[in-house]
Specification:
By secondary structure, the protein is of the alpha+beta class. 28% of the residues lie in helices and 35% in strands. The longest helix is centred in the middle third of the chain and has 13 residues, at 98-110. The radius of gyration is 15 Å and the shape is globular.
Amino acid sequence: MRLVDLTLAELDDVARLLVDDGGYSERVAGHAATRRDAADVLTSRPPRTAPGAKHVLGLRDEAGAAVGVADVIRGWPSAEHAHVGLLQTAASRHRQGLGRALHAAVLERVTTWTEVTTLRLAVVDTNRDAAEPFWRALGYRPTGESKPFESGSVRSAARIWTRPVAR
């Protein structure tokens, strides 16, 4: 496996990966993943964050195929946080340790950001059954904070989870 930084040049690879999502897009947006969703993964970021704060990492297998993508925002919502907006592996490759490997690569990158002490993410209630066991196994815990979540036809809540960055 090889970790790469992704740009819009890899839009087709990210789009193919998002289509093989095991129902994630249906659960959080109410529709199958589209090319526009892939472009959003590669470019969208929270308001008032610099373009350089967004890091999109891709995991490629030995044949060069995209098998995972992670979207991380450095310094959001505050300087000591890195927010994981998405960490997804190809559903056709689940149960092969790719999610853990991709998370380990994210963690390795984040540890070089000395100001970041906490990894943060949101678990959408409509994806809770699929997501919570994975994140809990990686050391994340719910903070008790939640926010309304709307995407496509889905109206739900997003619950914030964090874990410390060990150095």
